[in-house]
Amino acid sequence: MNYWLLKTEPTVYSYDDLVKDKKAVWDGVGHNTALINIRNARKGDLAFIYHTGSERQVIGISEIISDPYKDPKTDNPKMAVFDIKPVSKLANPVTLAQIKEDKIFSEFRLVKESRLSVVSVPENLWKEIIKMGK
């Protein structure tokens, strides 16, 4: 099992939208490293949904429900997507400020590469964010 963090602008697509839709195609990613991360994800992996913009917080958990596949909206074979479904909302969203305050996260790619929209999450950091979100 791998863990991921997926960034989204909540005014464009929020965790509540995912809950309402019951599933979604995670698309619109163009950054090469983020695309590599998408291609490394597998059905059954879990992913935090992180709201960007003025919120900047981990809001909920989703499950990746398909292996990666070519984005059907483009002719570019390097563009990859996967499908996700909601799992649960965190009882207490975990803000970027909270994450940055804890030195356990000092090497976390969310902190070090703030522009990356699909980030792998080491298991120990996943567990720490879960604990912070209770």
Output the keywords.
single chain; 134 residues; alpha+beta; seven-stranded mixed β-sheet; 5 helices; globular
Overall mean confidence score, pLDDT: 96
The number of strands is: 7
What is the share of helical residues?
Answer: 25-40%
Question: Could you give the order of the helices and strands?
Answer: EHEHEEEEHHEH
Strand portion, in percent? Answer: 25-35%
Largest sheet features: 7 strands, mixed
Compute the separation of the termini in Å: 22 Å
Give the overall shape: globular
The gyration radius over C-alpha positions equals: 14 Å
Q: How does this structure look, described?
A:
The protein has 134 residues and is of the alpha+beta class. 27% of the residues lie in helices and 33% in strands. The protein has five helices and seven strands, in the order E-H-E-H-E-E-E-E-H-H-E-H. Strands 1, 2, 3, 4, 5, 6 and 7 form a seven-stranded mixed sheet that branches. Strand 3 (46-51) and strand 4 form a beta hairpin. The radius of gyration is 14 Å and the shape is globular. The mean pLDDT is 96.
Brief overview:
This protein has 134 residues and is an alpha+beta fold.
Per-chain topology:
Layout: E1 3-8, H1 15-21, E2 24-26, H2 32-40, E3 46-51, E4 57-64, E5 69-70, E6 80-95, H3 96-101, H4 109-112, E7 118-120, H5 123-132
Parallel strand pairs: 1-3
Antiparallel strand pairs: 1-7, 2-6, 3-4, 4-6, 5-6
